[in-house]
Amino acid sequence: MTGDFVSGGTAGFGPGDDAVLEVADLRVSFPGEKGTRLDAVRGLSYRVRRGETLAIVGESGSGKSVSSLAVIGLLPTNARVSGSVRFRGRELLGLNDKELSRVRGAGIAMVFQDPLSALTPVYRVGEAIAAAIRVHRDVSQDAALRRAVELLELVGIPDPARRAQAFPHEFSGGMRQRVMIAMAIANDPEVIIADEPTTALDVTVQAQILEVLATAKQATGAAIVLITHDLGVVAGFADRATVMYAGRPVETATVPELFAAPKMPYTAGLLSSLPRLDAARGARLRAIPGAPPSLTELGAGCPFAPRCEFVVDRCRTVEPELLEIGGGRAAACHRVLEGLDLMAGAPREAVDPSVAGAADGVSLATDHAGRGVGAPIQQADPAVDTLDVPSRQTDADADAADLPNPRTDKAADTEDLPGRRPDPAAEALDAQSTRTDLSGSAIGAPSRRAEAVVRPGSTADQLADTAVVRGSLAEQAADALAGLAGAAGPNVTTDPVLIVRDLVKHHPLSKGSIFRRRIGTVRAVDGISLDIAPGTTLALVGESGSGKTTAVMEILRLRTPQSGSISVLGQDLAALNRGRGVRRRAAPLRAGIAAVFQDPLASLDPRLPVGDVLAEPLRTHGVGKVGPRVQELLRMVGLEPAHANRFPREFSGGQRQRVAIARALALEPRLVVLDEPVSALDVSVRAGILNLLADLQRELGLAYLFVSHDLAVVRHVADRVAVLNLGRVVEYGDADPVFKDPQHPYTRALLSAVPVPDPEVERRRERIVLPGDPPSPVVLDGDANALRGCRFRGRCPLYAALEDSEARLRCETEDPALLPVGGEGRSAACHHLGARSPALIPHGTAA
Question: Bridge partners of 540?
């Protein structure tokens, strides 16, 4: 075992004859600053039996992966490990690396999160598996290679003999993960540790990997320790679960018991923060306030107390022990025996006011009325402009308005900050408020227009309820709403903010290093059409390579498309890009559209404090009075004005995404493109961001183009859905009917692959597992068959079930068009919409 070994720690945890792996009081620490130790794992204990699956869940930094690496001795040499790890009764802690090497791979195998980094790039896949076999078995190279091919076939790799000769980079992510599983089961281990094996995969590939793990478990009889943050996966795959927080276990139970009645507030918070496929659209998620504590600053009391709805005085002074509560269940909470209904939430007076409403580690300030500035926006008084910072800021806020800028050598600045030269042109522009957007409304000026969130089918009363008064009196908003209602009647509609028709984007595929020649085409986007109404959300969904991001980038570039048409905020891009002065004419259009990307750390300049990050688009578009607007943006997303002086690296992931959202809102856009905005976040942080996006849409009347592969998130946020496959829309329509009654076989397969965080529902669902990985959009020159017929038929369960030869021939020769189906505004591209493949979910169990 690498690292220092400290004996002891097994008291009260006797060996069990039926347990293949026993971990008792496992503790792991690393060197900290000034001679201190960082306690990454603090007293983890569990037992797992042969054929059983134990899930270890928790947010990032809870110690899940560190504990698994400690079990098999893969921690760095500066780690100090104590406690006990017994494999088949043999103590592993204290063994040297040579002794542990005999156990690793043969007795305990591991499947890592990133298979590309775990596989040796210079070894062919078959050679890598054969090498893992020969380390532990005295067999010839030929016999090991034959066994490697058998294992590749077992885990579902097509044409295994040929693919065994390929290198890891020639495989897709899902196929590489299958190779890792094949390598893990090569020597029939008794324990398989799977560390986030499905995190970076598409939902359909995730379903395949879980099926492969189940097959491997059945073939070897191995126990599985599954490390994951996806509680939907836990619900359908695991037998028991241990929840970790701040390096220690806080609850352990069987999976049905854990989901039915969690005993630890943290577990209840995780379950409540999940968007669910079987929940109604728009249901507000119960986000966990705050962020996990730093392991270097753990004080007295329960580490979860600052975020807990049920906190009492004792929680702040004494850390609770993991208390046995009968039936093999245990929880670390002082109030576990009080019979609290954790899923219902705490009484209002029980919430700690110092953290209530905070998100992602933000401690809230208050405005002049005593309200938390980071509180949900919908709680604001509709008759008062709560975002009018200059007229209502406190003294502390006024001090925070003078944002220090480390770029002191910058001369021209439009902000009223000490030591900076005012820009007369910017001041004049600000005073006159002459800049307008495409609708004639001022952009970025302190005096904001009254807006109403207008959705198709909205009534005047509903509009009145959702009116946002920004820089004006409530009467002005009421007059505006009355005008809208009078002009358009009870059903107020407006022109779409985005119209895309027959969009095409192909990339040439070349070969050769010196004399390059074209050999084919990457048909990234192959004729998609969509539109977005003001105040609504359109979601683009599909597997990797389906064309989602390419379509988004074509829209954001504001260039004339290769083929088809794009109209943004009423402006056709082909007309916009004709003649001179394109940049000048495009400026208001660029101010009206914004984007939030998947990785906020990569989206934010690490050299600038967030105040300058937010001020940059304002300065670029010549907006005066930048300081107050930066404060307003930070408050709008639940951060404090004082945070303007921090650099992006000083924020948590959720806070950085809030900064990215604030930057996107800087110029008051009407359309925001959200490209996987929550996929890189923990489940509790994700809930806070989704709630924030819903609040901002309701308050500001934003239209969202939401790109995601997580259909549970899409179910929560989307008004309309466009399902993409190989660059084409195969189903399109309102979200409710698409999710309740999907018409295209691809949509059914996507939905069936989404795990539901409910063991009772998840384990009786019928699942459609698509064969193979998503096909490539590459079409080689001269390959006439590549474009014939339905491009989904190679994976289509409906096509495979067809018995009529004429029906099959139609799929093979005729490309299906997107035709109306099932009601107004809904369409699907399939020749056999009347036929039904296996049911998605048994009736009455899910949406």
Answer: 707, 722
